[in-house]
Every structure is written in C-alpha cells, then in structure tokens.
Design a protein that fits this description.
Layout: E1 2-7, H1 16-30, E2 34-40, E3 57-60, E4 62-65, E5 68-74, H2 79-87, E6 91-95, H3 100-110, E7 115-118, H4 123-130, H5 136-148, E8 152-155, H6 158-166, E9 172-174, H7 191-197, E10 203-208, H8 221-224, E11 229-234, H9 240-246, E12 251-254, H10 258-267, E13 270-272, H11 282-289, E14 294-297, H12 302-305, E15 312-315, H13 320-331, H14 334-347, H15 353-379
Parallel strand pairs: 1-2, 1-6, 2-3, 6-7, 7-8, 8-9, 10-11, 10-13, 11-12, 13-14, 14-15
Antiparallel strand pairs: 4-5
Helix pairs in contact: 1-15, 4-5
Length: 380
Amino acid sequence: MRVALVTESFLPDVNGVAHSVVRAAEHLLRRGHQPMVVAPQPPPALRDVRVDVPYPVVRIASLPMPGYPQIRLGLPTPTMTGAMRAHGTDVVHLASPFVLGAWGMAAARSLKLPTVAVYQTDVAAYARAYKVGMTEGAAWRWIRTVHNAANRTLVPSSESGAALGAHGVERIHLWRRGVDDVQFHPGRRTPGMRRVLSPNGEIVVGFVGRLAVEKQIDLLADVSRLPGVRLVVVGDGPAGPALRKALPQAKFLGVRRGLQLARIYASFDIFAHTGPYETFGQAVQEAMASGLPVVAPNAGGPVDLVQHGRTGYLVRPFESDGFTAAVAELATDPLKRATFGAAGRQAIEGRSWAAVGDELIGHYEDVCAAGILERRAVAA
C-alpha cells in the first residue's frame, strides 16, 4: 500500500505524535509498503535541521499556534492534494488531526481515498490550558467533525475512546502504542549514570516529557523536597523556565534521546508522571519497559497502563499529596520498588512496535476493503 501520513507534528519535533508517525512509517517500510509523510513546515530556527528518513516528507506552509508557538498550524494549500496524487496514495493516515489533518481529510475526500484518523492529543485540554482563542466546547465540536469524516478513528486507551464516544465521535477502534523493549530495558542501568543522577546515593524520581502547563509537573514540588530523594526532569518546553524556579531542588537534564535516554530511564528508581490529560502515556510505558515502578494520575491513558498496587500507584489527579505519599512509600521500600518494576516489565511484553504496526496495517486494509465494496455497490 501507498500510505500518506498527514501529521500535525514531525521531526525535528520531540513529542508523542511525531514519534508515533516515525514508528509507523518505519514499520510500513519494513513490511514492503510505501509511506509518505505530510507535515507542517517547522519554525524558522529549525528549518536547517536535517531530517534524514528513507521516505518522502512533504512540508506544508505553517504558522505558530497562538499561545503555544512551538506548535505549528499547517495552512490550506493545493500542495497536499498534488502530493497525494503524485504519490499514488491508497489510504490516508491522519495523525492527531486538527488543522493540517482537516486539510488532509479534505484532500482525501476530493481524491475519494479512505481515511484512518488517529486520536492522540487532547486538544480540548489544550484549549482550556492555553486559552488559544477556542473554547473547550468548540474544540470538541471540531474534533467530532473531523473524526466523523474519517472511515474510522483509532484511540490509544479506553478512557480516550469513552471521551470521544461521549462527544459524539463514531466508528471508534482501540489501537495502543508500541514500545521499544530492547532499547528501554532494566539492563541499561549503569553506575556512571547513577553517579550523575544521584551523586550522594539519593533515591532518584524521574519525569520524562514535554515541559508544559498541562503536564502539571509542579505537583512534584513536595516530592523534590523529600529527604533522601532526588527529582530529575528530562525534557524541554514552554514551561521550562517557570518549572526551574518552582522546583529549585530538581535536576533538569533537557532533552535526551536514544540510548542515552534509555540509560537515564533505567537509572531512575521511581517514575512519576503527573499529566492528567494523556490520551496514552508513552513515557509511562517506556518507564515500565525500563523496570520502574510508576506513580501516575488515575486519569487518561495511565489508567490502562498502570495496575494499581502491582506495577505502581494511581493517585488522584490535580493534587500533589497523592504523588508525594506514593513516592515517599516507594522510596523507603526497595523490595516493593523491585517487585513493581519487574511486574511492569512483564506487563509490556507483546507491545512491540512491530506488533502494533501490524495492527495498524490491518486497519488500513479494512478501510480500503470497505471502500472497494462501497464503490462496487454504487456502480451496481
């Protein structure tokens, strides 16, 4: 199949949407298919960053999103339709569609191509958090419009599926994310990294992700002050400067990638994830693959990932006390940390990117087959 992946974000961006698109495209190539990525033009400061991938990438003119300039909004242009036509696209994958995804949907419909929309970003929460000129209600109405135009919508968790269903989205199917269980592995823990993270032998509590308001990382302020505990934050984003002031005891490492990131994960003792709006929670899954107990909010994607009392703790969202108490308990109980971590590693078995990539191809095949039957019925 020739698959056009229309995404709101792509390399060199570092986020869940871009990462999932890269993984999907890589898997399509391995299975003998021909992907093409359509993505917004990155900001001027990043346009000289080389993106070296073995498939075509079509860039669409973009503008910064008001209130969150790190996100680029693709502009309507005939470039997309022309690119799909030249590519000979068979099916269109809309990754977290909102702005560019809507233009991608319009292009697909004009070419009579089947579409799969992948819900990955809680845009309604963004509208509430960043006051971007759209109310939460308006965001949901737009999400419903875009997703109901697709042949099917794929959701990463039961909670996100329930939320979409409650807001009138139809044809919902569950498609979870994969994890690289070779790269993220307990064996990546090293004495050298431990010395960097924990120079005085502290218990290391880690957070990995975008530093943004909706992640609510400031809920870990009391954790950072626990005796014998060191909070380490990996990532960057618009809330970075404010968080460095709010968490003066924490160690901020900035963005880390690849094997270095894997070694950092494995050298944590506890993983804390505070964001209540995650549709999935890829960092949680990477932490579990690294053999870590997880403390996360009882909301969104982590509800499907963390088994309370077996692989970690689910605590009340939006409140710091639950995070602090759970971390304090785990920090003083090495046996429980080891037991939870081993159970988490076991829980992610079978969630390789190859396995979920094959599931994705199955969804493509289903909508293509349905499109053929529909055209035959019309012709008859």
